[in-house]
Design goal:
The protein is of the alpha+beta class and about 375 residues long. Among the domains are: about 70-110, Classic Zinc Finger (Double Stranded RNA Binding Domain, 2-Layer Sandwich); about 305-385, Double Stranded RNA Binding Domain (2-Layer Sandwich). The protein has 14 helices and 24 strands. The chain has helices spanning about 15-30, 35-50, 70-80, 100-110, 125-140, 155-160, 185-195, 210-220, 240-250, 265-275, 295-305, 320-330, 350-360, 375-385; strands spanning about 60, 65-70, 85-90, 95, 115, 125, 145, 150, 170, 180, 200, 205-210, 225-230, 235, 255, 265, 280, 290, 310, 315-320, 335-340, 345, 365, 375. It has a two-stranded antiparallel ribbon with strand order 1-2. A two-stranded antiparallel sheet has the order 3-4. Strands 5-6 form a two-stranded antiparallel sheet. The longest helix has 18 residues, at about 15-30. It starts with 12 loop residues before the first helix and ends with a helix. This is C2H2-type domain-containing protein.
Length: about 375
């Protein structure tokens, strides 16, 4: 067999050599290679176009007008507009814009970590990750906040700091007054009030409030299951499902009952254990029985007249916490439930549900004698009387 025979090359090492080759090409593009490579790149540019001056960005993106020195750079950039991902992982099916990104991803399957920390020996898939790790040893903080002067080891931590209450006021929800440290958190929260779902499935048209929900949903159409168990090979569409499944191999039981100490591998098993009625609880006043102690305690307040929840504004007392929360909105003027049709807002969700019938025409209350239907319960009661 010849020295350069492809059969002698390891399949895992083959992509690495291609990565190095591609990295050299990238270095030429951005001018970080040696002087000989820069000269070669400059000559190539002059040969390709007689009207191009060395260093000019003559390749223009037709989508955003951004300019590039190399046509290959332009091609890669335009994929951010078209969504094209031509490089596909043969193991999990995940796709990428650039060939180098695919090679980096493949290391998550092979376990290869070519970049080693010289201080602690920890291995990394990418060089940039190693560079960030080294700062934990050196204490270097190259990213500085221009507002307060605080330094950070990574750009991500700086951006997180900039959107935090440290440099800005807390972000407040205009519907319920809840405050958030980050604008993105408040924006996501406000969709609970507005009902906004900006992420749309292109296959079935279903909408989602968060992008992660859409990505997970799209796998129900594609059948993609990128998370595989290393023990039995079973695959899952979500990483959380894989983590739960792994407990069937490890025997881990992280959920414990606070009453009896019994442990369970799955949260649903603990919940079932907690709410499985062991005995019926009996009201000492009327003899009525309940499956859960909390239900009986709440019921007994009807007999005892106990009202443990007090309004701090007017002193009015309530038997249940939910009644107090609803009452407090009469003082604050808060109306967190808004109608998407006309914009009218309500302090209680039940009031919004009743109001929506004026738009939908729904009439759920029917007279048992004449069959006439009504949208509101009070209208049926008036009709009967």
């Amino acid at each position: 067999m010849s020295k350069d025979s492809p059969q002698q090359k390891c399949e895992v090492n083959q992509p690495i050599s291609m990565v190095k080759q591609e990295q050299q090409e990238v270095d030429v593009w951005i001018g970080q290679d040696n002087s000989e490579s820069r000269t070669s790149a400059s000559n190539s540019t002059r040969t390709s176009s007689a009207n191009t001056i060395s260093g000019d960005k003559c390749f223009v993106c037709s989508y955003c007008s951004k300019r590039f020195r190399c046509f290959s750079q332009l091609t890669i950039h335009q994929r951010s507009h078209t969504g094209e991902k031509p490089y596909r992982c043969t193991l999990c099916g995940k796709r990428y814009f650039q060939k180098g990104h695919l090679y980096t991803h493949q290391r998550t399957h092979t376990g290869e970590k070519p970049y080693r920390c010289s201080l602690c020996g920890k291995g990394f898939i990418q060089k940039c990750t190693l560079d960030k790790h080294l700062r934990s040893h050196t204490g270097e903080k190259p990213y500085t906040c221009t507002k307060c002067g605080k330094g950070f080891t990574t750009k991500f931590n700086l951006n997180k700091h900039l959107s935090c209450q440290t440099c800005n006021n807390k972000f407040k929800c205009v519907f319920c007054g809840k405050t958030f440290e980050y604008l993105s958190h408040m924006t996501r929260h406000m969709r609970k009030h507005s009902g906004e779902k900006p992420y749309v499935c292109t296959v079935c048209g279903k909408r989602f409030a968060q992008k992660t929900y859409l990505i997970t949903h799209e796998r129900t159409h594609s059948g993609e299951r990128p998370y595989a168990c290393m023990e039995c090979g079973k695959s899952f569409s979500q990483k959380s499902s894989l983590n739960v499944h792994l407990r069937s191999h490890t025997g881990e039981k992280p959920y414990s009952c606070s009453h009896c100490g019994k442990s369970y591998a799955f949260k649903i098993a603990l919940r079932t254990h907690r709410f499985t009625p062991k005995k019926k609880f009996k009201c000492v006043f009327c003899g009525k029985t309940f499956e859960y102690l909390s239900h009986m305690t709440r019921h007994m307040r009807k007999h005892s007249g106990e009202k443990p929840y007090v309004c701090t504004v007017c002193g009015k007392r309530f038997a249940q916490k939910t009644y107090l929360i609803t009452h407090e909105r009469t003082h604050s003027g808060e109306r967190p439930y808004a109608c998407m049709e006309c914009g009218k807002s309500f302090s209680q969700k039940s009031s919004l549900n009743v109001h929506l019938r004026s738009h939908t025409g729904e009439k759920p209350y029917s007279c048992s004698h004449c069959g006439k239907s009504y949208a509101f319960k009070i209208a049926l009661r008036t009709h009967r009387c």
